[in-house]
Amino acid sequence: MLPRSNFLDYKKEGKTIQIKINNEILGDFVIDKNKGNFELDLVILTKHSRESKIYKKISSYPPVMRDLAIVLDKSIAYEKIAGVIKKSSALIQSSELFDVFTSEKIGQDKKSLAYHLIFQSDQKTLKSEEVDTEIKLILANLEKELGAQLRR
After folding, report:
1. pTM: predicted TM-score of the whole model, two decimal places
2. Higher pLDDT pick, 2 / 89
3. How much of the chain is helix, strand and coil, in % rounded to 5?
């Protein structure tokens, strides 16, 4: 994705359109006999790109997956919940929302959310007790910060 601050421009000459970014030629688009050819300078595109990839070594230890279901106010945004989950445990690799449930049984202004949580260490195989401790910490932080409760 190109940054918004870079100026993207074009110049049309005959059947060729020249595309520039910050006065550097990014590429040409040529229309010839009802077909178009596009040539792009990847060096210039990369130079003006704002995304960078950071690669991390894949752990040789197995991941542990657990499901967690919580009940909390409907007004609480998904991003807040995901943020609390992520910052609550250094071992959490990902959290994926897989179920949203609302019903009078859990409360008119409440919702139940269920997550797949994946835990993994780079140093060792995790024991079940270690993951249980992490889940208790996540639940404590969700309750403290968002008023969430474990769905029973």
Report:
1. 0.64
2. 89
3. 25, 40, 40
